[in-house]
Automatic annotation (TrEMBL):
Name recorded for this polypeptide: NAD(P)-dependent dehydrogenase, short-chain alcohol dehydrogenase family
Segments of skewed composition (Basic and acidic residues): 9-27
InterPro entries, per database record: NAD(P)-bd_dom_sf, Sc_DH/Rdtase_CS, SDR_fam
Gene Ontology MF annotations: oxidoreductase activity, acting on CH-OH group of donors
Region described as Disordered: 1-30
Coiled-coil intervals, chain numbering: none
Recorded family membership: Belongs to the short-chain dehydrogenases/reductases (SDR) family.
Length: 284
């Protein structure tokens, strides 16, 4: 066993391709842009599909150039590049594993070389593997889930930090499972708890530098993550029905939370978490 586990892309089709998913998730922004990110550069991990794609599309509509980090879904990444370019903005797609510190360093260096600046970092990439019993979670899976979901956030933030100045924003993706728990996602929900603590601590660390750090905790959202193996068949059959709204959310219902936290609309917020989760009331 090495210190770094390789991506578990062999397991049941993970991380999943949006191009093969039916019905297709709704990623398109719902309203005209108003220049809230004009002239900014945003780096978004996991931006090839799902929530990341919707955030990339919305940020581009609001005037930002976009760096798309993704693992191996080249078709989805090309589609996201096209979406950004149709909004009149520049885009680059960089394939690699955010759990690899060297990749994160190289990716940020490429963003700076291409765009000359970095204003918004969105730590969105993540993976999950359902298990009904804690004894079913292999050491490989446990290490890999933490490596992607929380180590990757540390690595990307470390690489980006020298390029983030006053007015920059970092937005991390946590989950409703951090607040509710999840009996089938023990390792995943544990990483989401770590992400929330990371967000609050990093906010305290950087707020004096004029850099705001916040998070978004989505509920059940229709993305490739769950139907590609991230949820059991039983859970998928009734996906999102346990929310007060009685349905799963769409990526473009989550993206506005990421926009709000990236722009000056949230200039007096740091260390906070927004909850687009279908009406589920949680603490925090």
């Amino acid at each position: 066993m090495t210190d770094q586990q390789q991506p578990m892309i062999h397991e049941e089709g993970l991380p999943g391709h949006e191009s093969t998913l039916e019905p297709k998730p709704d990623w398109a922004p719902r309203y005209p842009g108003s220049g809230r990110l004009a002239g900014k550069v945003a780096l978004i991990s996991g931006a090839d599909s799902g929530i990341g794609r919707a955030v990339a599309a919305l940020y581009a509509r609001e005037g930002a150039d976009i760096a798309i980090l993704y693992l191996c879904e080249h078709d989805d990444a090309r589609k996201t590049v096209e979406i950004v370019e149709r909004e009149g903005r520049r885009a680059i797609a960089i394939a690699g594993d955010v759990g690899d510190k060297d990749f994160c360093d190289r990716a940020v260096a490429e963003v700076i070389d291409r765009f000359g600046r970095l204003d918004v970092l969105v730590n969105n990439a993540g993976e999950q593997h359902p298990d009904k019993d804690i004894t079913d979670i292999s050491e490989e899976q446990l290490r890999r889930t933490f490596q992607t979901n929380i180590f990757g956030m540390f690595f990307l933030t470390q690489a980006a930090r020298p390029h983030l100045g006053k007015g920059a924003a970092i937005i991390n993706c946590t989950s409703v499972t951090m607040y509710q728990g999840s009996k089938e996602l023990l390792d995943y929900s544990s990483t989401k708890g770590a992400i929330t603590a990371f967000t609050r601590s990093l906010s305290e660390n950087l707020v004096g530098e004029g850099i705001r750090v916040n998070a978004v905790a989505p509920g059940p959202i229709w993305t490739p993550l769950n139907p590609s193996g991230g949820a059991s068949e039983e859970k998928l059959e009734h996906f999102g029905e346990n929310t007060p709204m009685g349905r799963p959310g769409q990526p473009n219902e989550v993206a506005p939370s990421f926009l709000f936290l990236a722009c000056e609309d949230s200039s007096y917020m740091s260390g906070q978490v927004l909850h687009p989760n279908g009406g589920t009331v949680v603490n925090g």
